[in-house]
Write a structure and sequence with these properties.
This protein is of the alpha+beta class. The protein contains 2 helices and 3 strands, in the order ββααβ. The protein has one domain.
Length: 78
């Protein structure tokens, strides 16, 4: 497993980072799930399925619209 670091802006516009392990480079959606589970554990339990698959990244949009969190980059941790 490789260590990955997600750089994002939190609700106050402060640059934050979160490290987690994944076999390959995670997508923004996977990174959004990691942020949600660590920063907003209650929200993580919501069902974000879009029944007609209109939204490929519902968690990314949830973070941005409801929590003010914007993911900027995902990079391999050193």
């Amino acid at each position: 497993m490789k260590a990955w670091e997600v750089i994002f802006l939190d609700q106050k516009g402060v640059k934050q980072s979160l490290r987690f392990e994944s076999e390959r480079e995670p997508s923004f959606e996977v990174a959004a799930h990691e942020i949600l589970s660590k920063w907003f554990p209650v929200t993580q339990r919501l069902d974000l399925n879009d029944f007609e698959d209109r939204n490929p990244t519902p968690t990314v949009e949830l973070l941005k619209e409801h929590h003010g969190v914007t993911i900027h980059t995902i990079q391999e941790a050193s």
